[in-house]
Amino acid sequence: MRFGCVPRENSIGVLFAQVGTPDAPTPSALRRYLKQFLSDRRVIEKNRVLWWLILNGIILNIRPARSAALYRNIWTEEGSPLLTITKKQSEMVQERLAPLGVEVAFGMRYGNPSLDVAFDELIRKGCKRILLFPLYPQYSAATTGTTYDAVFPLLLKRRWVPTLKVVDPYFVHPEYLTALAESINEGLAKLSEPPERLVLTYHGVPLEYVEKGDPYCCQCVETTQHLIPKINLPKDSIIHTFQSRFGRDPWLEPYTDKTIEALPKQGVTSIAVACPGFVADCLETIDEMGREVQHAFMEEGGKKLALIPCLNDHPRWIEAMANICKNELIEWLDADNRSVNTGACQPKCPANANCKGKER
User: pTM for this structure?
Assistant: First the structure.
């Protein structure tokens, strides 16, 4: 049996995974989105029967209209900020990795485009080795963990199972910290005068999750500890908090809203707010912090709350994303280079079938 050489396929892909966003700022779209999100066992760890009754009998009949109104506050002509920013991040990283023969796609854990669609996109492009890059610097079962839940089963549907590698949580990665510091310092420099306090606010999780062993709280604290020396403010003027609590159960403290509302009574009337745990602006940053919390701060006697944008498409963050990918892919890239240099190739199908682009 004779074998001939066929061109090597572009075998490496990067899959950026973000939490998700509704398709439109409407009650019907929010109902679909919230049903998927709040049905996730990683997000809500309550008795499944009881939670099903609460979710379908109460929450999904009340919350979609309210959430749709909040999303209308931030919606743009291009759509959801989280979606448009994630898309731009993916495209900019693709430009940097294309010379290395790497394909980049992005998907949402909830909503569209789904992780399934993004995964299939990479497979169609011939990627047999995929790097999963969750866009959550700090690990939590409710974010990074549930991303694994969604992606790992996709492998089992394949006859030729792609090799999968996962980016380590990068909560103290030098590239991430440098990008954060540059972004925050640039935001501070644009203010007419330094704020009296800088609030670093992270998305909260129920305290129960941490007590069960979730490392999220510790990783957020470590991010703040490593970030403080890089910020152009006195370290005693920087505050660490947690936001976005939901329900009646205790969440991680100190609470962002309560902390900020109390500052005017302490004589602090000028603050800046940054959100290190979010790599893209979204409802929780633009509306919750930039509107709701700001309004409460002013009501209590505050004079100025400056919201510093998330990393978004900041050049240093795009560079950091690309560099993290390169570092994680170095063994695969080196192996491809060795194969090219030695003239290695894939054997032509003995049956003379045109397999290119088809699932193995």
Answer: 0.90
